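Please, structure for the following, as tokens.
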Amino acid sequence: MKSIGKTRAAARIAAAVFATSVVAAGSAYAQQEPIRIGAFLAVTGPASFLGDPEQKTLDMYVERINSQGGVLGRKLELISYDAGGSAEKARTFTKRLIEQDKVDVIIGGTSTGETMAAVPLVEEAKIPFISLAGAVVIIEPVKKWVFKTPHTDRMACEKIFTDMNERKLSKLALISGAGGFDKSLRAECLKVAPKYGIEIVADESYGAADTDMTAQLTKIKGTAGVQAVMNCGFGQGPAIVTKNYKQVGLSLPFYQSHGVASKEYVKLSGDAAEGVRLPAAALLVADILPANDPQKPVVTAYKHDYEAKYKSDVSTFGGHAYDGLMIVVEAIKRAGSTDKEKVRDEIEKTKGLMGTGGLFNMSPTDHMGLDLSAFRMLEVRNGNWTLVDNKR
């Protein structure tokens, strides 16, 4: 009987010690410093149709990751500012994220202008930065601490020119906006056109505040030999160009870029968007991808999660934020810490990561990691995206 009593007493003591250790471990987890993810996005302003889904995506997945135990046993803390598309605000907020908020990594820069304003600051501070903007200038030349997830403007030109080659079209008219992305896209198209046997026979432009581009489009309509038209644009301008395109009676093949790859563009353009083609990520056509497409599980899951939570159409821009966050999370896991140099190195070593934008394979000479196969050529039909590759 005595030995039984001693055994029970020992068991009670052991249980108490175990309970105390569990509480202590939980307390230690609660007291651990969070991993601070900084962001500056164009949640409001003319680029809000890009920045708003980016913000919502980061909010949703940071919350989900934390509900599953965080990363390396630490919670993620998202510290985000609305730069509204302003390069000046982006610079201010980047400085604040680095100096006051002491973030471990930055994801953001909805637009090229915002991104390029932040680049000198992150390079000087030596903090990993993943941009969500499109221009190739962000990663070329390679900058040690700067990466990006969206397809580049050069890739958009190349995908469009490849499609023109397949359609036996060689004479193209350009109409371009005045923004940073617009100018960079135009410059890249002019640069690579000869490689694809494309001749630029007209080159028109419009201002950021312009609300009618019929004069420029009328000139294009009167250009001898033109076989197709491409709009190098971003924000609200492309929808105006699309409406004016129909109004002046242009019926030539019309291309837009991935800068308008959201359902919002189709809504703003109305039936004038019918037949417009553009290169975009597979995310926009997730539901109609072939069952054996290796990207389908990722894009359909993201689409389901986003639309279920926010009751609004998914866009490729939110997908860029998802890709950026996943690249960061996986890099931190591989680094085993938030040491900035180690995390930077692991981001650069990203290989075989399937995102909404495609398969990412980064390297010291490629801080994006996507090739042309990551782009799908889409066409607007009956107000919806269709996959050109699947069209008869």
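Residues 1-30 have pLDDT under 50 and may be disordered. The chain has two domains: 35-151+295-371, 154-280.
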